């Protein structure tokens, strides 16, 4: 018997490397927001040191169950006060390096979870 994975309903992260992420085969070199609900758009933050609360407010408006924050090539944790917009809406956040966030996004989206990946490239 041949087993095949279920097709994702929304975008799939199909590759990544230093300075880029591919979504549905299209390569991006800017930071991205990718949603299991179909959204794939540039994120207005190019680097970790540019983050502020407004970036997490933008993610909260998408109303996911969980945000996967890919902080770049190494794990960097956001300041707790930046996360208030997520926590006030009972939205979870997991911080990991961007490559791990890409892999985790595909896994959770494949399970049908309402997840958003915010990826610093």
From TrEMBL:
Chain segments annotated as coiled-coil in the UniProt record: none
Gene3D superfamilies: MTH938-like
SUPFAM superfamilies: MTH938-like (SSF64076)
Source taxon at top rank: Bacteria
Protein's recorded name: Xcc1710-like domain-containing protein
């Amino acid at each position: 018997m041949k087993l095949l994975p279920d097709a994702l309903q929304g975008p799939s992260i199909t590759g990544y490397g230093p300075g880029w992420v591919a979504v549905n085969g299209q390569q991006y070199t800017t930071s991205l927001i990718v949603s299991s609900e179909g959204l794939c758009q540039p994120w207005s933050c190019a680097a970790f040191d540019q983050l502020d609360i407004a970036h997490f407010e933008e993610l909260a408006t998408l109303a996911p169950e969980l945000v996967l924050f890919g902080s770049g090539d190494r794990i960097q944790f956001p300041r707790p006060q930046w996360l208030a917009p997520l926590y006030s809406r009972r939205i979870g956040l997991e911080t990991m390096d961007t490559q791990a966030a890409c892999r985790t996004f595909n896994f959770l989206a494949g399970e049908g979870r309402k997840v958003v990946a915010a990826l610093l490239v």
